[in-house]
Amino acid sequence: MKGISQSAKKIKGQPMFHILVKANELEQQGRKILHFELGDPDFDAPLNVREAVCTSLARGETHYTNPMGLEEFRIAVANATENSRKFRPSLDQILVCPGANSGIFYAIGCTVNPSKGEEVIVPEPCFPTYISAVNFLGAKAVKVPLKEENEFRLDPKDVEAAITEKTRLIIMNSPHNPTGSVMQEDEMKKMYDIAEKYDLYLLSDEVYARMIYHDAHTRFSSPSKYDKCQERAIVANGFSKSYAMPGFRLGVAIGPPELIAKMSLLLETSVSCVSPFIQRAGVEALKGDQKPIADMMNEFRERRDLIVEGLNSLPGIRCVKPKGAFYAFPNIRETGFTDRQFFEYMLEQAGVACSPGTIFGDNYGDYVRFSYASSKKEEIAEAIEKMSKALKYQGGKPTISNKKRVRMAP
Q1: 6-44+292-398 adopts what CATH topology?
Q2: What is the model's pTM?
Q3: What whole-number distance in Å separates Cα of residue 379 and Cα of residue 43?
Q4: 154-168 pLDDT, tens per residue?
Q5: Is the Cβ–Cβ distance between 210 and 242 less than 8 Å?
Q6: Spans of all domains in the chain
Q7: What is the C-alpha separation between 83 and 402, in angstroms, rounded?
Q8: What is the pLDDT of residues 63-102, one digit of tens each?
Q9: Architecture of the domain spanning 47-287
Q10: Are the C-beta atoms of residues 279 and 69 closer than 8 Å to each other?
Q11: What order of strands is seen across the sheet that includes strand 327-328?
Q12: Torsion, Cα of 344, 348, 352, 354 (10° steps)
């Protein structure tokens, strides 16, 4: 046996799916489990979007297509970008990807030189794909911590302090997974200025861009508008979250034409192209009635308010109110649990599945993530009640069973 490659050994994947597997096993044993582990909306994709797929299939659109994406879809993306970010990218700046994940991977792979020891700055905590992709590609991830006292917004001063002569790319994410934070306009401008000052690429993961709760002074902003994605800004976006289309695996990357051309070649190498009937769904999503999306966001706002109030009512727990996405990231330090103990205890004793904070960052053992994407309000209320009853201590310490632990990547 030759064994697997060193790169393969660095892959962590997305440990949230391991939690889902364990939760499903408990359900098969007859347990009722309340799910807060995955960012998978419980809404169906809008009917007009699903019908667009059926119509496309009926027309026989089941063959290869332009690896960059259907022209009609890229025009729709350009129109949407002009409306939301106030610039219109050219079609050679737009790449249709099989999910936002792949766009992130292609962007890292086509900007960073591992042989030169180049570095990628990433926020911590973060979506696990960032670290996994950087490690697999042989680059070095430099983590910039997000602070609870700053509502988990990425601080440009901390980013600039982390830059070295090896830095090549900065990754940012707003609205943010796992905390739900939303960066402010002045912070976005400072992030772009830093990238320009040090001649770096700036990859903005905007998959939750449409998912902002418009509280006072909270508005979506993107660093891409400062150079119109012509020089250094790269946008990764997708349809999984805001359009409840996770199974479609449809994403878009916007960036400098030369870079997008190389990312397209990497896409060709890995998947050839995105299915045309899936792209037709994207066209319809962008051009069709947006009321179902607004209705979904109103529901998410109500869920957010309920879960944050509930978490803050539990002894030893405090939770910053998220301004976007559909995640709550409470601090559970005062409960006496570590993040993994809390996760295990709540799964076993309360039937509530959440995600340990260290899945998203090594230094976040005092936190857990609750996704309310697929949890109805009555389920949130039930989960809070069950966790309240489960938070019992013996000698000041929580009682943790010795049952088999859930396997998650270290």
Answers
A1: Aspartate Aminotransferase, domain 1 (3.90.1150)
A2: 0.92
A3: 15
A4: 999 999 999 999 999
A5: yes
A6: 6-44+292-398, 47-287
A7: 54
A8: 999 999 999 999 999 999 999 999 999 999 999 999 999 9
A9: 3-Layer(aba) Sandwich (3.40)
A10: yes
A11: 327-328, 368-371, 355-356
A12: 10
